[in-house]
Amino acid sequence: MAYLTQLDAQLLLFIHDALHHEPLHNFWAGISFLGDLGWFWIFTAAILIINPKTRSVGIAAAAALLLSTFVSNVILKNAVMRPRPFEVLTQLAPLAEASGYSFPSGHTTAAFASAFVYWRLLPKYFSGFIMALAVLVAFSRLYLGVHYPLDIIGGIVTAYFGSTVVLNILPRFKQS
After folding, report:
1. Hey, where are the domains in the chain?
2. What's the pLDDT tens digit per position in 123-174?
3. What is the DSSP letter of 21?
4. Is the pTM of this model over 0.90?
């Protein structure tokens, strides 16, 4: 486990050292902003819920977002209690404010919970764009120095399972 933790820190420091360019700081902060409080993902679900043709997709995305972020932010973060990288790695200067525990990434969880639902239920031209945006949000958290790579992977896995549970339950809601 110590090796994995060390590798995780080394990967983050590599990203920090090799890819940081001041002209890109605002871009990555803007991408990360899409995940703040899940507002963008809530907004996309709400837009889909308004349209009767996409209502079930919006409901599924909202449910996946709710379930995944609950598991991520309430259960896993408090069970693992991993400190933020900038609290441990003194050579890391975060480019954004972050509080609470690090594992898993809540921004990543929210982005991928929605993206996985859209990928499975919507045309690929739209869902592909959203999936790419989720990847950018996840990377932004590394770039900004507020998460480790394993935090990102944890968020993606949590989102995958949350969205899968919701999509397996959703047909039962339609029959009621």
Report:
1. 2-175
2. 988 889 999 999 999 999 999 999 999 999 999 999 999 999 999 987 765 5
3. -
4. yes
The answer to whether 9 and 90 have CB atoms below 8 angstroms apart is no
Domain 2-175: which topology? Answer: Vanadium-containing Chloroperoxidase; domain 2 (1.10.606)
Dihedral sign, Cα of residue 31, residue 81, residue 84, residue 11: negative
Q: What is the DSSP letter of 37?
A: G
Amino acid at 147: H
Q: How far apart are CA 97 and CA 105, in angstroms?
A: 14
In tens, the pLDDT along 79-112 reads: 999 999 999 998 888 888 888 999 999 999 999 9
29 within 8 A of 131, measured Cβ to Cβ: no
